[in-house]
TrEMBL record:
Organism field: Oryza barthii
A Pfam family recorded for this sequence: PPR
Annotated InterPro entries: Mito_RNA-Proc/Resp, PPR_rpt, TPR-like_helical_dom_sf
Keywords associated with the record: Repeat, Transit peptide
PPR repeats: 81-115, 116-150, 152-186, 187-221, 222-256, 257-292, 293-327, 328-362
GO MF term (any one): mRNA binding
Protein name in the entry: Pentacotripeptide-repeat region of PRORP domain-containing protein
């Protein structure tokens, strides 16, 4: 069109091409087309630039977005709007570059833009996620004082979440009370943050009070609500109470997710209730909507090995593979040590070789149990000839983060 026939696209057609390439995930092609806009004498609307930047950030290319954005505004190829700045600010906050986000907010006035509620929400959330919750709270207070751009439930919840993650539950509740006094109703996310925060510090009484207040205000709980309560009870060793909450989920017609299953199964295994853990694992395997992951199976395999039931543990391993779940380094480590404890060294060596073939580096597991792994490695390489008694390891199973 341009080379052979000498036609130049207009702004509308070029914007259509850019949007089409972006939708087709041809992001570099979109960027190239936009870079030619000035050559064609076109001024493409900000929408096309914003959509491309959002897609790039969604694929983790934040640094590319910042470079493109700064080049575009320097060359004056388009006029960024509030959405443009919000997209870039959200991207840099996602990678922890909050200072860069603050600089971008300061530059908005140059282009006739003013930060809106979304801008401030992104900024507050970014500050709180980088452990600068006091600065995030100050932004919230400033918004309340100025009255120009009023905070909403998202702004308050971000600050509440920041204080909860820092273990400052009194400050979190103070912000919550301030929000309610301001006439802003908390939502499910707000309550979930508080319930999870109290559960993490072992204050189950307060967590239950927040849950009861949630139900009184007819704010519907979700799977995160119940998972947080279950996690709190499990952390305090109150497994039967956690199982009661598990049963309550059915009354609310809420299905447990992969993390709910993992929390309960892990806690059952800690209390050597392997039969119940296997029962839940079987229930999980019947759920087509949940993709099984190794961190759910590993505690069951571990508790069976520690009880000497290594063949049952291996059956669990085979079951997870049948479900399309690949064993990880912890799975193999548990089995290697379990079979060593039963003096079945040849099978331990077999798992060692299988681990290596699966791409799990032996070095990655030596930190937790050097004697056992060294023993198997020497046997696997022919460097040891005698079978020795292997002490029971203290394997730390990784717990999922909600």
């Amino acid at each position: 069109m341009t080379t052979h026939y000498g036609y130049s696209p207009d702004a509308r057609f070029l914007s259509f091409l850019v949007s089409s390439c972006t939708c087709a995930n041809l992001l570099d092609a979109s960027a190239t087309l936009l870079s030619k806009a000035s050559e064609f004498g076109c001024r493409v609307e900000a929408y096309a630039y914003n959509k491309l930047m959002s897609s790039l950030i969604g694929r983790g290319r934040v640094h590319d977005v910042v470079a493109l954005f700064e080049r575009w505004i320097q060359d004056r190829v388009y006029s960024p709007d509030v959405w443009s700045f919000n997209v870039v600010i959200k991207g840099v906050c996602r990678v922890g570059q909050v200072q860069k986000a603050l600089e971008l907010v300061e530059r908005m006035n140059e282009f006739g833009c003013s930060p809106d509620t979304v801008t401030h929400n992104i900024l507050v959330d970014g500050l709180c996620r980088t452990n600068e919750v006091s600065r995030g709270h100050e932004v919230l207070r400033r918004l309340q004082r100025d009255g120009v751009c009023m905070p909403n439930v998202v702004t308050f919840t971000s600050v509440i979440s920041g204080y909860c993650k820092a273990g400052k539950l009194e400050d979190a509740m103070a912000v919550y009370n301030d929000m309610v006094a301001s006439g802003i109703m908390p939502n499910t996310v707000t309550y979930n943050v508080l319930i999870n925060g109290y559960g993490k510090v072992g204050d189950l009484g307060s967590a239950v009070e927040v849950y009861q207040q949630m139900t009184r205000l007819r704010c519907p709980p979700d799977v995160v609500t119940f998972s947080s309560l279950i996690d709190g009870y499990c952390r305090c060793g109150q497994l039967d109470d956690a199982l009661r909450i598990w049963s309550d989920m059915a009354q609310h017609r809420i299905q447990p997710n992969v993390y709910t299953f993992s929390i309960i199964i892990h806690s059952l295994c800690k209390q050597n209730r392997s039969d119940e853990a296997i029962g839940l694992l079987n229930e999980l395997n019947l759920r087509p909507d949940i993709a099984p992951q190794a961190f759910i199976y590993n505690p069951v395999i571990d508790v069976l090995c520690k009880c000497g039931k290594v063949d049952e543990a291996n059956l669990i391993r085979k079951g997870m593979e049948e479900k399309g779940c690949r064993p990880d380094k912890y799975t193999y480590t548990i089995l290697i040590i379990g079979y060593c404890m039963k003096s079945r060294i040849s099978e331990a060596i077999m798992f060692f070789h299988e681990m290596v073939e699966a791409g799990c580096s032996p070095d990655s597991i030596t930190a937790g149990m050097p004697n056992e792994v060294d023993h198997v490695m020497r046997l696997a390489s022919g460097g040891a000839s005698s079978i020795q008694e292997v002490p029971s390891p203290d394997i730390q199973i990784r717990e999922p983060q909600m």
